[in-house]
Design a protein that fits this description.
By secondary structure, this protein is of the alpha/beta class. It contains 15 helices and twelve strands. It has helices spanning about 15-20, 45-55, 65-80, 90-100, 115-130, 140-150, 170-180, 195, 230-235, 235-245, 250-280, 300-305, 320-330, 360-370, 385-395, and strands spanning about 85-90, 110, 135, 155-160, 185-190, 205-210, 225-230, 285-290, 315-320, 335-340, 350, 375-380. Helix 1 runs antiparallel to helix 11.
């Protein structure tokens, strides 16, 4: 894990999210300093030479590293329990860098089928263009993972809980399959948040996040994270980030640091609101099914208990009547707003079949359980009574 001062060595997540990674300037500021600079100066030409050679500590260029960005990286590494982190300009930049930097032409990747649309694009469309083959499997079926392994398999990739149908994959079991094959396991942990699931402790080699979601949590800026051990971070990933430039701006890093301070408070309220909303929707005669990891009727309820520390802030509801009914529900909402973002303090809802997963074929969507009647809801921190009234009003408006 990233170095922590002695007084934080055994601190809880809530304390680390306020104090972890703090580096104060000589001015002794309480809030993290915002270093809005592209470059840095050196005391001498010899010092500049030493820094470029890696023989002297210090910053060179904000595309390579920046003090504000480093504070964000160190705080997240302390929370995740990894040796370090690399911040990127967006969540997709993190996914892309984590995957592409660890494979080359002739290699093979195995991925779960249930992924965010852009993640599937990288696996199925982008990687093959660089000579990297890919195999898509049902992530819940461990035999499919095993059967897909080839001598040239270098990387396994999964998202759990999945977007948008909130199905789970056994991280520990897939990590063993990957490691037995000499491959790396990359886990997208965005839905669970770093508080509710710890993929690195379950055996994942690389954990990626869209910091745009719960970490910012207030819809303000983009950001991404790659967390791993130093061997991976200082390997091909380091050069990939330095030379292709998916760097996080210092200002966005500062905003994300502020978001981390309130993450536990927000996630706790969001989880409670999600549980209440799931129960309310499940009781409606206009609903076919509700998928929420905290409910006993979730198909992966036992795995939720095994590997998650909380049920999460997201739910998926499948309405009877398909797209027409789903749209009627969405259009009748007043407090919950229509948006494809998630993890926000504001409650948000979207229709995956026509937004986040619209580029998939109808057959692919059906295979993932993404029907025309599905609505994905990201619960915010509003009053639970107000949210329930909003949902009830929208249910009454259907038909």
């Amino acid at each position: 894990m990233t170095d922590l001062p002695e007084h934080l060595a055994n601190a809880g997540d809530e304390t680390l999210l306020v104090h972890g990674g703090q580096t104060r300037s000589p001015h002794g500021e309480t809030a993290e300093a915002l270093y809005l600079t592209s470059g840095f100066v050196y005391e001498s030409a010899e010092s500049a030479e030493a820094r470029f050679k890696g023989e002297e500590d210090g910053y060179v260029y904000s595309r390579y590293g920046n003090p504000t960005v480093s504070m964000f990286e160190n705080r997240m590494a302390a929370l995740e329990g990894t040796e370090g982190a690399r911040a990127t300009a967006s969540g997709m930049a993190a996914v892309n860098a984590a995957l592409i930097s660890n494979v080359k032409a002739g290699d093979h990747v195995v991925s779960s089928r249930a992924l965010f649309g852009s993640c599937r694009f990288i696996v199925e469309n982008l990687l093959p263009g660089f000579g990297v083959e890919s195999t898509i499997v049902d992530g819940a079926d461990l035999d499919q993972w095993r059967a897909a392994i080839r001598p040239n398999t270098k990387l396994l990739f999964l998202e759990t809980p999945s977007n948008p149908n909130l199905r789970l994959i056994d991280i520990e079991a897939v990590a063993k399959i990957a490691h037995d094959a000499g491959a790396l396991l990359v886990v997208d942990n965005v839905f669970a948040t770093p508080l509710l699931q710890k993929p690195y402790k379950l055996g994942a080699d690389i954990v990626v996040y869209s910091a745009t979601k719960h970490i910012d949590g207030q819809g303000r800026c983009l950001g991404g994270l790659i967390l791993a051990n130093k061997e991976i971070l200082d390997g091909p990933l380091k050069d990939f980030i330095r030379h292709t430039g998916p760097s996080l701006s210092p200002f966005n890093a500062w905003v994300l640091l502020k978001g981390l301070e309130t993450l536990p408070l927000r996630v706790e309220r969001q989880c409670a609101n999600a549980a209440a909303a799931a129960d309310l929707l499940a009781d409606s005669a206009k609903v076919d099914s509700v998928l929420y990891p905290g409910r006993a009727d979730h198909p992966d309820a036992e795995l939720v208990k095994k590997q998650m520390l909380g049920a999460g802030t997201m739910l998926a509801v499948d309405f009877k009547g398909g797209k027409k009914t789903a749209f009627e529900f969405l259009n009748a909402l007043k407090i919950i707003r229509i948006s494809n973002n998630l993890g926000d303090s504001k409650s948000l809802a979207t229709h995956p079949a026509t937004t986040t997963h619209q580029r998939l074929t109808p057959e692919d969507r059906a295979e993932l359980g993404i029907g025309d009647g599905m609505v994905r809801i990201s619960l915010g921190i509003e009053s639970v009574d107000d949210l329930k009234r909003d949902i009830e009003t929208a249910l009454h408006a259907i038909g």
